[in-house]
Amino acid sequence: MDFMLILRDSLSAAVGPAAIVYALAAIGLNVHFGYAGLLNFGQAGFMLVGAYGLAVSAVVYDVPFVLALVIGILASVVLAVILGVPTLRLRADYLAIATIATAEVIRFIVNSPSNADVTRGSQGIAGFAKPFHDLNPYGGGLDIGIVRLSRSDLWSATVGWVLVAICCLIVYLLMRSPWGRVLRSIREDEEAVRSLGKNVFAYKMQALILGGVFGGLAGIFLALRQASTIPSDFGTHVTFYAYTALLIGGAARVLGPVVGAMIFWFLLNGLGTFFGQLTSGADPILPEGLMDQSQASLVRFIVVGLGLMLLLIFRPQGIFGDRKELAIDAR
Amino acid sequence: MRWRLTLAALVWVGLAMILPGAALADTADPTPAPTASTGTAQAPPDGSYFDVTLVDRTDGGDGEPVADVTLEVRDDADELISEGVTDEDGRVYLPIPGGGLYTVVLDEDTLPDGVELDGSPELEKSVILDGRQALLFPIGTQEVESTPLADRVLQALANGTKEGLIIALAGLGLSLIFGTTGLTNFAHGEYVTFGAIATFFLNTSLSIPVIPAVVAAVVTGGLFGYLSDRALWRPLRRKGVGIIAMMIVSIGLSLFLRSVYQYLIGSQNRPLSDYVVQKRIDLGLFALTPKAISIIVICLVVITVVCVILMKTRMGKATRAVADNPALASATGINVDGVIRNVWILGATLTALAGALLAIDRQVSYSMGFNLLLLIFAGVTLGGLGTIWGALIGSLVIGYVVELLPLLGVPADLKFAGALVILIIILLVRPQGILGRAERIG
Questions:
Q1: HEC sequence for B51-98
Q2: Which end of chain B, C or N, has fewer beta carbons within 10 A?
Q3: What is B2-146's CATH number, 1.10.10, 2.60.40, 3.30.1660, 2.60.120?
Q4: Distance from CA of B118 to the nearest CA of A (A)
Q5: ipTM greater than cut 0.90
């Protein structure tokens, strides 16, 4: 049992690109759920259109890289508008079902062989990230004992954390502004805000677009980081993990989703390496009949599910959250 | 008129050193071996081999074995390694010397009349000598002027009835629980899988025949519903946890249970010991396998009985009273907690039955219920969440839509997307569903 290795894997994941993807997605969910009270279960759909907006325009239609990035972001804005116009009037649980169904429909369509000339089906698209990785200024990877990142991961992490910082700053400034106060009042009592003459629908729509763009950025970052994009990267589980990350850190707090995503990946990778070590080698510590290697990789997901339940039951406000601030029990 | 259809072939790469071929054949081959005079009975060879079962899944999930098709295995130098003809179960064993890259080639000339391949009849597969791998190889086929459209519609309706009724059974459970507790249970798919996995373990680990195993699994499912209410949902209700928080708890439960299922049975599809591949019986207008007919009858009887109980009996009236207004029901002397407990037991029992029937209809996998979840939501929402007959009507519509869409030119892999589009539209246009009462939902 090599505890140093476990610590290194955990910390590397917590500061590496994987955590950044979920931090960005969770920042988006924080705007939706934490501040506006919109139960968006389709964040994976926003990530997908962002990633595929970039990949399809760059690879299939030969659009220049920077323009393709813009198209990726615009794609998530378009999805937010199309999704928001009809669904924002729905009750929370119906909104959740409508958004999760939309995300799945988009994934089915992208995955379908009948659209493979554009989306390349389940194989996914690669070959659009070269401009991004060509900008890499680092000569080598980072290895300081407890954290180890490869050269490309180090570059992705640098860009990613800058992106996260910018997004957090935007959220921080917006939520201090009058706009943010109206948004939070909508979460608390929609009718009261309406009676003050505010256009509730417009505010909700703006929140949906803003959070959707953060989701789109998460998808774009994921696509750039792994230099490819495949439909199975955007299943419903991605949304659920992002919610878990958000709720660990605490909803309706600027840094909640960021810290949550880091802790989420720290635990996920730490547990993965821990149980991997328990079951690997010629003479594993746990007998093979009890747990084999593929089962060992599942234990962490069992823990994620259990953790999400316990979190909601015993500390719904997360680490930083304020129970009074977060009206998770509204309606 | 030409029509796109799919012919799916299941290719098992079985390695006799790890899994004796005879045992493999037992699990996947329920029908007795044909008599020697037909000359098609085959025994698995010694050593490594491809175990190919050609199943025509043109008309839905059941599949019908395709016999007398010649297949060849060639290595990467295009040398012929072995050759075989599928028997009347659509099965053929193609021996191979060991690990390497092989191409399985299907001889198109030997396909039954009216079926032509339009995709590649070749499948490349590299064999690694460390276990058994399954892969599905879909072959696009075109059926040439053989079945008139009307017949295909009737067949799709028959299959849609079966699909829809299984969804309805699970949906009735969801609807009951939603109606009385207001919980949109995202873990409901895992309650479906519970029934299937319980059947699988009772059937294969304890060697109980399929039908008693189903009965026992359904009872276990009810117990599971009771325990989950007792241990999780009732304490949450007592604590005054809100609906949205409970919904996210149900997501946690869903992730948790799904991972546990995968831990227990792995990622591959697992067959039950019996009723795996059946020949269809021609009923005049359409053809169905005996198991499909049984599933339809069981679903119809159970759903009707439960709905009538809800309409007529005291327990049913109390349930509807709690669904309508828990505080008022409590004031009139109804034991609200008792009613909710009964609803969890009944709902989980129905859902487990749906899962067990699904296990017979297809195979068992850890994510089968989760994959069905959005279709269940679609069916129940379409009919009207919380209404008695809504789950049945809405789910049947969803079943028909899923089966009929491919006939209207929608690619078969998008038929579920079609059902979800209906779900989204119905949420926008009439969120209370076909039978639901209009109420404020925003």
A1: EEEEEECCCCCCCEECCCCEEEEEECCCCEEEEEECCCCCEEEEECCC
A2: N
A3: 2.60.40
A4: 14
A5: no
